[in-house]
Specification:
The chain contains ten helices and ten strands. The protein has about 300 residues and is of the alpha+beta class. The structure holds protoporphyrin IX containing FE.
Length: about 300
């Protein structure tokens, strides 16, 4: 049975019945509650439009609104976990492009039923987690991936992945599947266990604010292109790192618009993974195609 969008949001929020759902609405529960917004600029690689028919990238400087977050509905959750997330709104002259990304390249479910089951079981503690390991290979593979993910002392020290696939129109009229990868210009920097142990529970926001006051945090954005046999519509399947990549541009987080209304009120909006400019469209991945509706449902509940 296909889960409804409301059921998916309930599973994410841990509100399985109408009483807990109403309670969740009252406290404005949302996923990725521990987060903050900042700003910067995106500079497209001028060569992109030689191969890809995406007029959006002919602009030279595109305003960026960014939100960095941790997973989960607890706004006070500890920063000493491995998950790091980056959401971006690129607001162009006539179009916009949103990215909603994770430092994990792989997802834990390939369909909405498995997504629902995962969200429900992880909230049942060790027993639920063990059940997933025993019964859901995608969840098991995800846990194994997360175990190896290095903890980082900065939101700037991570790669970020779009995870789901999108379709890109090329100048010769073909459509090619690709996935977003943000590569930190200074490389991925793993924190040592000792360094991490000395930190307070909350340090990531202050760290990024201090950092960008001196020098911006920058990432090169690539599209990783699928080979003809790669599974496009399944976010549990990582493509080989050797796949061809095309440089799309650079995102520069510098805080330049942090005093603007849009940045200050950023938590009142949503990042929509299906907000795409001409020349980019959604793949048929069922996870991707449920996300916008779930984010809007969550937005309605928390307003
Ligand atoms: C069917 C699959 C998914 C569902 C149902 C779902 C659900 C949600 C919900 C309900 C929110 C809160 C939205 C809000 O109130 O603004 C959210 C936020 C978020 N999700 Fe998902 N999600 C899904 C897949 C993914 C995937 C694959 C990724 C990673 C690439 C992801 C990354 C994020 C991030 C980073 C946010 C925070 C956005 C922000 O900064 O405001 N989600 N998700």
């Amino acid at each position: 049975t296909e889960k409804t969008i409301s059921e998916l949001v309930d599973a994410v929020n841990g509100t399985p019945d109408s009483i807990s759902r109403d309670a969740g609405k009252k406290v404005k529960l949302r996923n990725h509650a521990n987060g903050f917004c900042t700003s910067g600029v995106f500079k497209p690689n001028p060569q992109v439009t030689e191969t890809l028919a995406i007029p959006f990238f002919t602009q030279s400087n595109i305003d960026v609104l960014a939100r960095f977050s941790l997973g989960g509905t607890n706004p006070q959750s500890s920063d000493k976990t491995a998950g790091r997330f980056m959401s971006l709104k690129l607001n162009g002259d006539t179009e916009s492009l949103h990215f909603v990304t994770s430092n994990a390249e792989v997802f834990f479910a390939s369909n909405l039923d498995d997504f629902f089951t995962f969200q429900t079981k992880v909230k049942q503690g060790n027993e639920g987690k063990q059940w997933l390991i025993d019964n859901k290979p995608d969840a098991k593979a995800f846990f194994e991936y997360i175990k190896k993910l290095p903890p980082t002392s900065s939101y700037a020290d991570n790669r970020y992945f779009g995870v789901n696939s999108f379709m890109f129109t090329s100048n010769n009229g073909e459509t090619v599947a690709g996935r977003w990868i943000f590569e930190p210009v200074n490389g991925v920097i793993a924190a040592s266990a000792a360094e991490f142990a000395q930190k307070p529970d909350h340090f990531l926001q202050q760290e990024l604010t201090d950092r960008i006051a001196t020098a911006p945090a920058t990432w090169d954005l690539y599209v990783q292109l699928a080979d003809k046999d790669d599974k496009v519509n399944d976010p549990t399947i990582v493509w080989p790192a050797s796949r061809q990549r095309q440089l799309i541009g650079q995102v520069i987080i510098n805080g330049q618009h942090d005093d603007a209304k849009a940045t200050l009120e950023c938590d009142k909006g949503i990042f929509n993974p299906l907000q795409l400019p001409k020349g980019i469209s959604a793949s048929a991945d069922p996870i991707l195609n449920a996300r916008s509706a779930a984010y809007i449902e969550s937005f309605i509940r928390r307003n």
